[in-house]
Amino acid sequence: MATWGRLDVFYANAGVPQWKTDVEQVEESVYDLIMNVNVKGVWLGARAALPVMKRQQRGVFLITASTAAIRPRPGGQTYAMSKGAVVTLAKALALEVAPHRVRVVAICPVATHTPMLPTFMGKREVDEEGLARYTATVPLGRLNDPDDVARAAVFLASDDAAMITGGPIEVDGGRCL
After folding, report:
1. pTM attached to this predicted model
2. Rg (Cα) of the chain, in Å, rounded?
3. pLDDT given at position 19
């Protein structure tokens, strides 16, 4: 705001994963960390960014959710719950800010080649077996590269996506079908 005098796009992209764990083995501290980063972080971002966008009558608030919000995998219930919460939050915020010509969109990527990928696989590092197992669940036959998510975000932030708000956008190669 100090430099440009406006806020066009805010992207709530911070997140922490969950090691594959049955619910009874999830420590409360792990639950708190996941919910604080994945949900509360988005909520705090919305509290800061959306009033600015509402005043200027324009803006896009993007959130990284996950396909886990739509089609969870076993052992990831806390992570899936956190991402489901931000999908619902995106819908609620979209309704709240639509009269101000502000859009809110949750991007739901499938597993992506990032430092979080091994955690989702329950491994310290990605190996051929884990990669093959995850890739087999994606109809297009590959996981996301970070650029896949970035291109979706750039599109959603643009005026080309002017009528997209509220709903989750799956960047998943068909995983949620």
Report:
1. 0.92
2. 17
3. 86
